[in-house]
Design brief:
The chain is globular and about 50 Å long. The chain contains 16 helices and no strands. By secondary structure, it is mainly α.
Length: 377
């Protein structure tokens, strides 16, 4: 957790694990669902304990840097996903889930101002990337939780509260997509945009599908907003098709990045890719349930197990990165008689010799001279 705790988007591990728990419950995988939600809650508790003072300060004084502000929205989405599981699966979980929704809503209201300003300003368009779509994921996750609470306890006011959150998610997705399109049109298309958070472009559409279907199901069960079911169903189909069309290109670009770059370095950040996969599995299952398309349910099961395998890989990568950070680092210069490879030469020495036009051998010689001056008679 030490590596994750240093990132503003550290709660992506909570999002990823929580959505897999919700999807496992929907697919009838009870033991897996309980294990995953236990891990998600444990991760949330650890991260909140480590970051609570800083998070409270950032809610009171919004972070203005886009690269930090958008990542903080993982707190909202992660806690909302846990609340959705509690509302759906836990016995008498309505009160606890309602408290989670209220706290998540307060956090979103405090954290959303900086991302909203970045989305509305063309000044930051050259920084747009996949994580900007968290501005849509956060309100959509709150809308899903509110609609779920409205359905399980027949509380129409919560369904009414879910509607503006759903609208906010749609607007945020449109603005983020426009900003990313502007960056792609103006700037070079490089591998820097194929990082794991690029999956959130697809995940935003997948959670839009789930949020729309949650509204539709709650409207039917609560006998509220009669006549809107058909329109909501059409919107859900459109967003699911759009997510499906994005799935293969995003997966292909990310796979190409893994081949061209070091895949191990991306593993601790792969949590950002797991949440979209889990959400796509859940969206496919919900469509299958409401329209009886068995093929979509089989697709949901396949994608779920792929996402779970990715979860295991990300957990292993995070553990390796954490152990590497905790391991003591070897001394760079061991003395005048020590063997110095190119990697052992301090970076400032390498930079000085590079500016002077000298090669790595000169850098090693300079390093030995410095070591001898420090350890001489």
């Amino acid at each position: 957790m030490r590596v994750l705790g240093e990132s503003p988007g550290a709660f992506s591990v909570v999002m990823a694990t929580g959505i897999l728990a919700v999807a496992a419950h929907a697919l009838g995988l009870g033991p897996e669902s309980w294990l995953l939600i236990a891990l998600s809650v444990a991760a949330a508790v650890v991260l909140l304990a480590a970051r609570a003072p800083r998070l409270a300060a950032q809610v009171a004084r919004p972070e203005r840097r886009p690269e930090v502000a958008f990542g903080l929205l993982t707190v909202v989405a992660g806690t909302a996903v846990i609340g959705t599981w509690v509302a759906e699966d836990a016995a008498d979980g309505f009160a606890a889930a309602l408290v989670i929704w209220v706290l998540s809503l307060i956090a979103w209201l405090g954290l959303v101002r900086a991302p909203a300003a970045a989305l509305a300003s063309a000044r930051f368009a050259d920084r747009a990337r996949g994580e900007w779509f968290l501005a849509a994921v956060a309100p959509f996750s709150l809308a899903v939780l509110a609609a779920t609470l409205a359905r399980v306890q027949d509380v129409p006011p919560l369904l009414v509260a879910a509607i503006p959150l759903w609208v906010a998610g749609v607007l945020a997705y449109g603005l983020a997509a426009a900003a990313l399109a502007q960056r792609l049109r103006r700037g070079p298309r490089d591998w820097a945009l194929c990082t794991p958070d690029a999956w959130i472009t697809m995940g935003g559409l997948a959670i839009a599908t789930v949020a729309t279907l949650s509204l539709r199901r709650a409207a039917i069960d609560c006998s509220f907003m009669t006549g809107s079911e058909g329109g909501l169903g059409t919107v859900a189909r459109i967003t699911w098709v759009a997510a499906t069309l994005l799935l293969l290109p995003v997966a292909g670009a990310f796979a190409a990045r893994l081949v061209r770059h070091r895949p191990v370095e991306d593993l601790p950040r792969a949590w950002a890719a797991i949440f979209p996969l889990g959400m796509y599995a859940l969206a496919s299952h919900e469509l299958s349930t409401q329209w009886g398309a068995r093929g979509l349910d089989r697709l949901a099961v396949i994608v779920f197990w792929i996402a779970l395998a990715a979860w295991v890989a990300a957990a292993a990568g995070t553990a390796i990165a954490t152990l590497t950070r905790l391991a003591p680092r070897p001394c760079q210069i061991r003395g005048p008689a020590g063997d110095l490879s190119g990697d052992d030469v301090p970076r400032p020495v390498q930079e000085d010799h590079r500016r002077a036009g000298r090669g790595p051998g000169d850098a090693r010689a300079g390093a030995r001279a410095r070591a001898g001056s420090r350890t001489g008679p």
